[in-house]
Specification:
4-stranded antiparallel sheet, alpha+beta, 4 domains
Length: about 450
């Protein structure tokens, strides 16, 4: 309603009829000068409100104290409201508590959808957690792979060694048989009782030993190998050793997911070596990659059973038999005197010679020293006859092997001269290992390994 209408009966004007300054409603001339100072009971000296303005009061309460602010603001004046209540025209009832508008069905439906979505997400998270708990951990995968290897009779290892092709077999006891390329040379290898033997061309031996004579002796034959001739050891690649590592990788091993030949695997790294293990049951080790000293290797791993390891032992028995008299090209033979001609050389029936030498090889406790002596008529002439002697020797000891020419060989040489003549003797030494009895011992060792 328009606020200029006069108050009707029953409306509260905010003034009583006996109050000074009250004027009839509807005749308010508006502000025409300063307000009149009027004595007001209990409020002397206060300004009376401008005549004709209606007071607003709080519902059920007394009029507000003066100074009075008009309900309609002067130009530029803000319209105050009651403390805690709305501003506005007088006599407006105190706003009752209004209930919030009802939520539309659409919004409620949206809320339900959101709640359902949150519940679904929470459920999915919980389900995912349960699935992860039920799936195998890398530790479990490694444990199962290790347990399978622990029961193996041996392993075949095929892949690369120092970046070149290699194919070997390793028994539970650590016996190694196989072949690979080393420095461009084809190498066949046996390791048994912690001793390695290699059959390789002379070019290979020239690259790893100092003495060219020893390299020629070893070339194409089985030879005892150590030092630079042994590209790596396989002690850490036996079934038992690999199994021990996999069975104790801890609760938080270093693992990445990958594939190998289309098969999902985990790549588990421990102590600088990587183990590729299938993620599907049964968990099995399929590849091992690492370094042995400065030599890198990468092998596909196949466990051997009692049946499948049979051919490996067949090859080992044949090769071990050929180790009798294997060359030891790294042994050092030092002559302690010139070749000595025995007194019988003054006769026409025989001529015996000998030489005192020392033998050293820190990696071999016992050896066989073979001395070969070439006889000739001049210092650098062709030999007309030879003799040889083989003696057992322990490393660091001194021996005096001897041999000679007898019968027609020597007597024919002597009778071919009608005057004084010279005879030259040139000694060569070759250190070998494995007597016949040693080979029997090695064969028995192989039989025990196969039965175990």
């Amino acid at each position: 309603m328009d606020s200029e209408l006069s108050p009707q009966e029953g409306q509260d004007t905010g003034l009583t009829p006996t109050e000074p300054g009250a004027t009839p409603a509807g005749n308010c001339p508006g502000p025409a000068g300063p307000p009149t100072v009027t004595a007001y009971p209990g409020a002397a000296g206060r300004l009376a409100p401008p005549g004709g303005y209606r007071q607003a009061r709080a519902p059920g309460g007394p009029p507000p104290p003066y100074p009075y602010q008009p309900p309609y603001p002067y130009p530029g004046q803000a319209q105050p409201g009651y403390p805690g209540g709305p501003g506005g025209a007088p006599d407006v009832p105190w706003p009752a508590a209004v209930a919030p508008p009802p939520k539309s069905k659409r919004r409620r439906g949206l809320m339900l959808v959101l709640v359902a979505a949150v519940a679904l997400l929470v459920g999915a998270a919980a389900a995912g957690f349960v699935l992860l708990r039920k799936s195998e951990s890398p530790t479990t995968m490694a444990l199962q792979a290790g347990q399978a290897l622990a029961a193996a009779k041996g392993l075949t290892l095929t892949g690369t060694l120092a970046g070149q092709n290699a194919s070997l077999a390793v028994t539970r006891a650590g016996t190694v048989e196989g072949s690979y390329s080393q420095s461009g040379n084809a190498v066949t290898r046996i390791t048994i009782n912690d001793v390695t033997y290699i059959k390789a061309p002379t070019a290979f031996w020239k690259s790893v030993v100092i003495d060219p004579v020893a390299a020629r002796q070893a070339g194409g034959n089985w030879a005892r190998a150590h030092g630079g001739a042994v590209i790596m050891t396989f002690d850490s690649l036996t079934p038992g050793q690999i199994a021990r590592v996999l069975e104790h990788v801890g609760n938080h091993p270093r693992v990445v997911d990958t594939t190998l030949g289309g098969t999902k695997v985990i790549k588990l790294t421990a102590h600088g070596t990587s183990y590729y293990i299938t993620t599907s049951a049964p968990n099995r080790l399929v590849r091992i990659v690492g370094r042995n000293g400065a030599t890198p290797y990468s092998f596909n791993v196949t466990p051997l059973t009692a049946a499948t390891i049979g051919p490996v032992f067949t090859i080992l028995h044949v090769d071990v038999q050929g180790l009798q008299g294997a060359v030891d090209p790294e042994a050092i033979v030092e002559p302690l005197q010139k070749i000595r001609f025995h007194p019988d050389c003054n006769g026409a029936s025989s001529c015996t010679v000998s030489s005192k030498v020392s033998v050293n090889d820190p990696d071999a406790l016992k050896m066989l020293l073979k001395m070969t002596v070439d006889f000739s008529g001049t210092k650098t002439g062709a030999a007309f006859a030879s003799c040889a002697d083989t003696v057992a020797v322990t490393t660091g000891s001194t021996v005096t092997p001897s041999c000679g020419l007898h019968g027609p060989v020597w007597s024919g040489w002597v009778s071919s001269h009608t005057s004084n003549f010279f005879t030259w003797a040139d000694a060569h030494f070759e250190t070998t290992v494995n007597s016949a009895s040693d080979i029997v011992t090695l064969q028995n060792e192989l039989n025990q390994q196969q039965r175990a």
